[in-house]
Amino acid sequence: MSQDFYFYLFAIAVVVVVFLVIKKIASCLIKSIVMLVIVAALAYIWFMYFRT
């Protein structure tokens, strides 16, 4: 599959994760910390595997 397809999949995943992080921050601090770790992992994957 093309690189653009993976970029759009990653962008959609980031939007969903950011929405969940904002939602969790309003409800529980520990859950938001877990979500931030997940966001950091996604950012690491982005910079290590998808950047050219």
Could you write a compact summary of the structure shown?
With 52 residues, this protein is mostly helical. The protein is built from two helices and no strands.
Description:
The model has no long low-confidence stretch (mean pLDDT 78). With 52 residues, the chain is mostly helical. α1 runs antiparallel to α2 (29-50). It has helices at 3-27, 29-50. The two termini are 16 Å apart.
Output the keywords.
52 residues, mainly alpha, 90% helix, elongated
Reconstruct the topology from this structure.
Elements (H helix, E strand, L loop, with lengths): L2 H25 L1 H22 L2
Helix pairs in contact: 1-2
Q: What do the pLDDT scores average to?
A: 78
Instruction: Provide the structure class.
Output: mainly alpha
Give the total of beta strands: 0
Largest sheet: none
Unreliable stretches (pLDDT < 50, length at least 5) are none
Query: Radius of gyration over alpha carbons?
Result: 13 Å
Amount of beta strand: under 5%
Give the overall shape: elongated
Give the number of helices.
2
What is the terminal-to-terminal distance?
Answer: 16 Å
What's the helical proportion of residues?
over 70%
